[in-house]
Automatic annotation (TrEMBL):
PROSITE patterns: RSMI. Residues 253-295 form the RsmI HTH domain. The gene is rsmI. This is Ribosomal RNA small subunit methyltransferase I. HAMAP family: 16SrRNA_methyltr_I (MF_01877). The lineage of its organism: Bacteria, Pseudomonadati, Pseudomonadota, Alphaproteobacteria, Hyphomicrobiales.
Amino acid sequence: MDHSEAASERKYYIGEHSLTAKRIEPGLHIVSTPIGNLQDITIRALETLAACDLIACEDTRVTGVLLQRYGIRTQMMTYHEHNAHRQLPKILEALGAGRAVALVSDAGTPLISDPGFRLVGDVVEHGHKVVPIPGASAMLSGLVGAGLPSDTILFAGFLPNKTHGRKKRLEELRDIPATLVFYESPHRVGASLVDMTEILGKRKAAVARELTKRFETFQRGTLAELSDFYSGDRPKGEIVILVSPPEEQELTEVDADELLLEALKEMPVSAAAKKVSKATGVDRKTIYTRAMELKNAGTAEEPESD
Ligand code: SAM
């Protein structure tokens, strides 16, 4: 590979093949980059990175590895959540001068749990063009390999780190009729799956790990099974968790009645609801409501007092 060309020649390389990028229009180009496998980049993305005047990236070392791989010598500047306010005027100035600026993140598609959403808003407000250059994203690779319904999905990004906030967020998502897609840190996978099992109940799910990389794996099962699987194991690498939509619960609720009537003989309503929710996988709120109905209808025997 000959690295002697000036940046102005706008070359890029695929293997030993030298290619000349066409000129691109001024504006902010939102360029997706690989999520692990450096070959997962489109020709259009390479052309854009080679032909633009400036690349705004989260970390010049990370993006530098990609540029190096493809022999691209475009100038980089950092743009991340901590310096966004300082860098915005510079990007707007470049766009105002008729330049083409590319926005990339460390991996995948910018703005997807990554910086850029405010920048795009500001750029649009200033009347500049925004050009998406599609490509890899972990949420999509996870979805297509999970084996779960893909007709309606809700991308929920990262859940809160602490159990209380996480459970609250899961309660908000519980009744949404869509496959839920989460990003998660490997340290919290086990804890998140425990909370998902409790709040979302009996559902199919998948844990997609290290997508596009050497140790790519999909672990599939019910939330309870996955929760068990990860209880003693802290996985390494990057993780997407996918959970199937809530199912019609009619049948399970009928089954739950029997268990509830038994449990209500021995314990108060809330404890009975907790026990039966755990046993059936039906969410606790539904079971609690049903327990109250049974109690108020006089169908349930009261627990014996000492
Ligand atoms: N913008 C990226 C995208 O389009 O996928 C996501 C960036 S977000 C800061 C990083 C999170 O994405 C990781 O913590 C992980 O949950 C998920 N992720 C990124 N790469 C992944 C991979 N190769 N395999 C599994 N999950 C990945």
